[in-house]
From TrEMBL:
Protein name according to UniProt: L,D-transpeptidase
All residue ranges annotated as the L,D-TPase catalytic domain in the record: 64-196
SUPFAM superfamilies named among the record's database cross-references: L,D-transpeptidase catalytic domain-like (SSF141523)
Keyword Acyltransferase included in the entry's annotation: yes
Protein family membership: Belongs to the YkuD family.
Domain of life according to the entry: Bacteria
Active site: residue positions: 156 (proton donor/acceptor), 172 (nucleophile)
Pfam families associated with the record: YkuD (PF03734)
Keyword annotations: Acyltransferase, Cell shape, Cell wall biogenesis/degradation, Glycosyltransferase, Hydrolase, Peptidoglycan synthesis, Signal, Transferase
Residues spanning the signal sequence: 1-18
Amino acid sequence: MRTFLRAALALASAAVLAGCYTTTPDPQLSPRDAEWLAQIPKAEDDPVYARYLLSTNETGEPPGVIVVDTKARQLFYVLPDNRVMRYGVAVGDEAFGWTGEAVIQRKAEWPDWHPPAEMKARWPHVRDMKGGPANPMGARALYLYQNGRDTLYRIHGTNEPEKIGRSVSSGCIRMRNIDVIDLYNRAPAGTRVVVK
């Protein structure tokens, strides 16, 4: 019943908002991206969390800013001409949620994963991993800094795309890999990020 209600809500939302949304094509992929993405399980398409180009900017932010709405589990990249690219995300669960402002100071393709000591203490099975299809960081990572210091929070891809739309991470903002590649291509280092 829960799946039916979620599907009905998603279809109703998509129908009501259809005039405001435009789907966008996937970004061009390198041969390595295509090969590695093919090894990551696919999740069902979900219109609530699919990537859309919105024709109205309701974030209150100027072009070039990323806004993450943790309650709605949506990330918005503000474009010129009052448009916004919207992406579905997974966010931190209540114990690990993070809000605030930061700047993207570093970007990486298929990044290595170095979990913080606190995470390794909580989950002894967690270990450092090289970048690739099995890595929880996914295809791209955008590293968030405040006042020149690494927050240890990231906007990154995932090897669990079925969890987009949930509160499941240790505070990082997870995106479908194809979406984080799209955002990575749009947002340069120095981009301001507002997480609320």
